Amino acid sequence: MIKTNGNVEKQSKVKQDQPFLTDVKQLRLQARQNIERGALTPAYQGDVKQTIAILQAVLATEIVCVLRYTMNAVVASGLSSQSVKEEFDEHAKEEQAHMRAVAERINQLGGKPNFNPEGLASRSASQYTEAASLVDMIKENLIAERIACDHYQELIRFFADKDPGTRVMMEGILVNEIEHANDMHDLLVAHQGTPSLPK
């Protein structure tokens, strides 16, 4: 709106730089075709089989993280272990939420999430390690989070605009994994007394 001499005049319509590429009638027609494909519409540009295979590996990674954090929360001991156990428990719950989101996305793409424990370690990007001390548990979790951060950033760049649904899901998981890595770093500093990151 532009005010001129106390009167309000409507601005001329904003010229659209780019018209809609598909009209509503065409969208409706496309939606009725191939309805057995569920959420996969003609606009999906990714390779479905490849995406499912990648997400199966992400699922395995998240399952391994749930198991490792849960085991650490159970066995961590020592005078200063209680707050660390609580942090491990919280991370295990958040990793379980990631696991569920990835499994749901595999299902949306027409795949069957692979929860089979056989071969789980080989499918996962991170490792399942049983550390002896509290500090070693923290270190192993920090290493696993750093692996996840690097791996998921690569996947986000890979999916890009070909599969925005999967990309956005991975972006949300990545933000949480970065927080986890920071939490583990802070715990390591608290228990070792020397910052690992420059301030």
Main attributes of the structure:
199 residues, single chain, two-stranded antiparallel ribbon, 6 helices, mainly alpha
Description:
The protein is mainly α. The chain is built from six helices and two strands. 62% of the residues lie in helices and 3% in strands. Helix 2 packs antiparallel against helix 3. About 5% of the residues have low confidence. The chain has a two-stranded antiparallel ribbon with strand order 1-2.
What gyration radius follows from the Cα positions, in whole Å? 23 Å
The chain-level mean pLDDT equals 84
Number of strands: 2
Continuous helix count: 6
- List the uncertain runs: 6-14
Elements, N to C (H/E): EEHHHHHH
Structure class: mainly alpha
Spatial shape: elongated
* Biggest sheet: strand arrangement: 1-2
| Major sheet description | 2 strands, antiparallel
Question: Quick gist of this model?
Answer:
The chain has 199 residues and is mainly alpha-helical. The chain is built from 6 helices and 2 strands, in the order E-E-H-H-H-H-H-H.
Write the layout of secondary structure elements.
Blueprint (H helix, E strand, L loop, with lengths): L1 E3 L2 E3 L14 H9 L15 H28 L6 H27 L11 H4 L10 H26 L4 H29 L7
Antiparallel strand pairs: 1-2
Helix pairs in contact: 2-3, 2-5, 3-6, 5-6
